[in-house]
Amino acid sequence: MHTHGSLYSSLLLALLCSGTLSAQTSQDTLIQRDLILEKDYVPAIESSDKLLILPEPEPVNQEKRSADFSLMGSPAPLKGIYRPLPAPVLNTEYPASKKWSYFSFAGGSKTAFLGDAQVNVLRQSKQTMDIRLLHRSIFGDITNSMNETKRSFMNQNRLMANYTLHLPGHELKVGLGQRYNAWNYYGLWKTPSDPASVNEVTTPDNQWLSDSEFAINLGSKQTKQAFSYKVGLNGHLFYLGKGINAPGTTNKTKGAREGTFTINGALAYQLSDNLATGVNAGLTTLSYRDPVTYTLSQTHYDNPSSTAHFFAKQNWLEVNPFARFTWKQWKLSAGLNVAVPSLENERVKWAPNFSGSTSLSDKAAFRVSLDGGILLGTYREGLDRNPYLDPYLKLKTAYQPINLQAAIDWRPIKDLRLTPRIGYSRTNDKAFFYNALPGGTDRINHAYGQLFSVLYMNENRLSIGSEAYYNFRSKLRFFAEAHYNQYINYSDDAGIDSQLAGHRKAWYQPGVDARFRLDASPFKQLSLFADYQIMAMRYASTSTEFMHRMDDIHDLSLGASWQLGNNVQLFVRLNNLLDQRYEVWNAYKVHGLSALIGGYVTF
Predict the structure, then answer these.
(1) 413: Cβ contacts below 8 Å, ≥ 6 apart
(2) Thinking of the domain 5-602, which architecture would CATH place it in?
(3) What are the boundaries of each domain within the chain?
(4) Cα 22 from chain centroid?
(5) In the Cβ-directed half-sphere of 552, how many Cα atoms lie within 13 Å?
(6) Predicted TM-score (pTM) of this structure
(7) Any idea which of 101-105, 242-246, 393-397 has the lowest mean pLDDT?
(8) Cα 285 to the chain's mean position, in Å?
(9) Number of Cα atoms under 13 Å in the Cβ half of residue 530
(10) What is d(CA 314, CA 567) in angstroms, rounded to the nearest whole number?
(11) Contacts of residue 125, Cβ cutoff 8 Å, sequence gap at least 6
(12) Closest by alpha carbon to 240, among 390, 25, 138?
C-alpha cells in the first residue's frame, strides 16, 4: 500500500484541529435516523417498512414524539436512487421524560413477529440514558421462475444503548449497538447445461452477519457564541458468517471481517451577521480479514487468486472548507469537497458544493443545491444493500462529481404544500448487481440465481417529480409523490458499453416511482391509514437479455390502531408483499397477503 505523500500529510494535519460531517458519517452513526418525509409532515401513523431493515437508533429528547414500530423494512436504500417501499408503523407517544419503558409485540400470518422494548435508565435534566431492543422476523413461501415454491426466512435483531450528557455550552452523546441478522439463500442455482464442476459449487443453506458499532460525539450547543465545533468518533466491526464451498472440498468457509473507524468533526466561526466560515474534515480507516470462500464472479470456480487487492487496508481523508453568507434575499453557502485516498491506484477526488434559498413570495420559496464527492464503498454496505451478494465481493468507492437539485415549496392555501423538484447527478464507478448475463459470459448462473455479482458503470440520472401534502383539521392527511427518472449508463469496459449502447438503463432502478398515502383520525382513539406505492419501468440482466423489462412492484398497506387508555394501544395491519427483497432482486412471486395483530404498553 502506498500513500499520496505530502498532500495526504498536510491534509491530515488539518484533521487534527477539525473533522468532517460527510454523508457517509450520517449513515453510520448510532444516533441518527432517516426521516421518511421532510419538513412538517408528521402523519398520525407514520410510513411503514417491510420487515427487513430495523430503524436507526437515536437518543431520546425531553419531549413527546412518535415511536417507530415498523412492521417491515425494505432493502437498504441505494444511495438516494432506489426509494424503498414503506409500510405501516404506529403513531404512539414515545416514552420520554414521563415514561420509564415500553414494550411492543405483534404476530401474524406467514409466521411474522415484531418486538420492541425500551428502558429509560436515566431521565434527568442533565443526562439521559436508554437501552432498546428490536426484533423482526418473517417466514413465508417464495415461488421462483420454475414455479418451485419453498420456505424462506429472515430474522433481524438489534440491541442499542444511548447516553447524553448536557454540559454548560456543550453536549456529549455516546451510543453502542449490536446487530445480528440471519436469512437463507433461495433461488435457481444451476441448469442442466452447466458443467459438473459448476454444479458442485454450493452456497450455504443459510447466512448470518454480526455488526458491532459505537459512536461518540462532543459538540457545542446552539448559542450566541461566534465559535462552534463538533468532534466525533464512530466505528463498526462487521462479520459475515459463511462463504461458498468449492468442488471436492469440505473446508469450513467464512466471509470477511471489516473494521471501519472514523474520526470527524467541524469548526465554524461567525465573522458577522451575514458571514460565517468553517471547515469539516474526517479520516476513515478500513481494515480487513480476508474471507475464506470461493468467488462466483467471472469463471473463478476454483481457489481464487490473492484477495489482497480486494481487501487491502485503506484510508480516506475528506476535507470540506465552506462559507455561509446572505446576499439580498438569498441564504447561500459554498465550499469544496476534497477526498484523498491512501492507495496509490486511487486518485484524489474533489467536487464543489453550493446551496441557496430565497423567498419568491409569502407563499413560495425556491431552493437549489450542488453537491458531490466520494460514496465510500464497504463490505458491510454491499451486504446491507443486497444480502444475496457474493461473500467474496467488497464494493468499490464511487465518485459523484455532480449532484444538482432544485425545488420550489409552494403553499397556495394554509393546509396544502406542493413541491415540484428536478435533479441531475453523475456517478462514476457505481455498483449495479446482477445474477445472470446473456451469452454465458459470466457463469454465475444461467437464470435467476441465489447469489449476485457486481458490474461498475458510470451513471447519468435525470429526475423530475413533485410532492403534495394536505392536512384537513388534523383529522385527514393526504400525501402524494411521483418521480420520473431517466438513466443514461456508460461503462469503461468496451464489451459492457457495447451492450449498453442500445438501452442505457440502470439495473433495478425504477424509471417511475410513486406513492399515495391517506391517514385519518375520525375520533381520538382511532387511527386509520392506507398506503400505496409503485415502482415501474425496472430493468435487469437475464440469461437472454442484457436489459430485460421486469414486472412492476405494487405495494398496498392498510392498517388501524385503537387507543385503550393512556398506556395501551392495539393495532392491525395488512400488506400484500411478504418479503420485498425477493421482489426487488430476484423478481420472484411473493405469496401474500400478510396480516399482523399486536399492541404496545408503556410504563
Answers:
(1) none
(2) Beta Barrel (2.40)
(3) 5-602
(4) 15
(5) 11
(6) 0.81
(7) 242-246
(8) 21
(9) 5
(10) 50
(11) 166
(12) 390
